[in-house]
């Protein structure tokens, strides 16, 4: 008899699949109180979310237009799920659940139930834990399980910022980026590890996100030849106190010092709006305006074989630990 099927579920943020989807996607995002707590409490969160998303949609649509009119996040996450399941073996079926756009957790859990599957490993594709991302996504998935398939036995992988195979794969990406640096720029080169910012209050309440980022960077640098590096935080918006330093300020400082820059997207495992538009577009334009003599970006992990192997090993460890 064949082994019963198991589900591999990868959790991610999701992104709009068309320009028309930008505003409702933003509304879903701003409605999540684990991510953003808008004023006047939970009762008015959704009305505020609709209002803010309406006014933000125009500029955000232009950002997505610059990268082809939609987010590539679903494409890459599906590739990661499919290829990881293939490495795990024929008794694994791949699923993807997005937090703010399709396919949503309820739809995915129902599909798992229809396949007759009663065991799943659920992996957050945010390697560094915060309640705003991993915490929200896992809570959302657990609610879907309780509502639609309470018999589903799930093992959750919530953070893996120091997983050696992940660090190996990320270090390989950095080496590829370093190979593109002109010889004349290498002596003065600075690596800028850029992670998505969080409001500082998340760190002050005890989220380990910043510590996890720093541990990942230390693990990657331990695998590389000596090179000067800094950590910055990007995608800051709104009138709150954000994690520092701001990646943009570090770019300006590099320009003032005449230092070439190679940016490493450290909190992102796939290309999406923050790598393709913010780093490749906005950061590059800022670097040119500030006099940075050379600017480059390390490739994202995407479906790199070493990264897929790292995910598969992570799942195997979770399964063996539960036996």
UniProtKB/TrEMBL annotation:
InterPro entries, alphabetically?
Ferrochelatase, Ferrochelatase_C, Ferrochelatase_N
**A Gene Ontology biological process term:** heme biosynthetic process
**EC number(s) on file:** 4.98.1.1
**Subcellular location, record wording:** Cytoplasm
Write out the catalysed reaction.
heme b + 2 H(+) = protoporphyrin IX + Fe(2+); Fe-coproporphyrin III + 2 H(+) = coproporphyrin III + Fe(2+)
The broad enzyme category this protein falls into is: lyase
* Pfam families named among the record's database cross-references: Ferrochelatase
According to UniProt, this protein's pathway is: Porphyrin-containing compound metabolism; protoheme biosynthesis; protoheme from protoporphyrin-IX: step 1/1
Q: Where is it chiefly localized?
A: cytoplasm
Superkingdom of origin:
Bacteria
Q: Name one GO cellular component term.
A: cytoplasm
Annotated positions binding Fe(2+): 196, 274
UniProt KW keywords: Cytoplasm, Heme biosynthesis, Iron, Lyase, Metal-binding, Porphyrin biosynthesis
Please provide, alphabetically and separated by semicolons, the GO molecular function terms listed in this UniProt record.
Answer: ferrochelatase activity; metal ion binding
Job of this protein: Catalyzes the ferrous insertion into protoporphyrin IX.
Concerning its family, UniProt says: Belongs to the ferrochelatase family.
Q: What is this protein called?
A: Ferrochelatase
What is the organism field in this record? Answer: Desulfuromonas thiophila
């Amino acid at each position: 008899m064949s082994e019963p099927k198991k589900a591999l579920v990868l959790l991610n943020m999701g992104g709009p699949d068309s320009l028309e989807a930008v505003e409702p996607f933003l509304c879903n995002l701003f409605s999540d109180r684990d991510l953003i707590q808008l004023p006047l409490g939970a009762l008015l969160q959704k009305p505020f979310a609709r209002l803010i998303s309406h006014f933000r949609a125009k500029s955000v649509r232009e950002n997505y237009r610059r990268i082809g009119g939609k987010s590539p996040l679903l494409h890459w996450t599906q590739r990661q799920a499919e290829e990881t399941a293939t490495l795990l073996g024929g008794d694994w079926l791949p699923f993807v659940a997005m937090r703010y756009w399709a396919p949503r957790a309820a739809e995915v859990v129902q599909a798992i139930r229809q396949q007759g599957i009663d065991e799943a490993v659920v992996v957050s594709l945010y390697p560094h834990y915060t309640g705003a991302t991993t915490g929200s996504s896992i809570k959302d998935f657990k609610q879907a399980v309780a509502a639609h398939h309470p018999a589903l036995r799930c093992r959750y992988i919530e953070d893996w910022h120091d997983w050696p195979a992940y660090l190996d794969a990320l270090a390989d990406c950095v080496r590829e980026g370093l190979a593109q640096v002109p010889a004349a720029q290498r002596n003065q080169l600075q690596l800028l590890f850029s992670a998505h910012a969080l409001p500082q209050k998340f760190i002050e309440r005890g989220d380990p996100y910043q510590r996890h980022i720093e541990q990942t960077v230390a693990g990657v640098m331990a695998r590389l030849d000596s090179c000067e590096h800094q950590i910055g935080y990007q995608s800051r918006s709104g009138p709150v106190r954000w994690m520092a330093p701001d990646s943009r300020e570090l770019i300006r400082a590099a320009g003032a010092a005449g230092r070439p820059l190679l940016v490493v997207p450290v909190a992102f495992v796939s290309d999406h709006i923050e790598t393709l538009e913010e780093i490749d577009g906005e950061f590059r334009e800022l670097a040119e305006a500030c006099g940075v003599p050379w600017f480059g970006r390390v490739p994202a992990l995407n479906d790199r074989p070493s990264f897929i192997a790292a995910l598969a090993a992570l799942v195997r460890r979770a399964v063996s630990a539960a036996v």
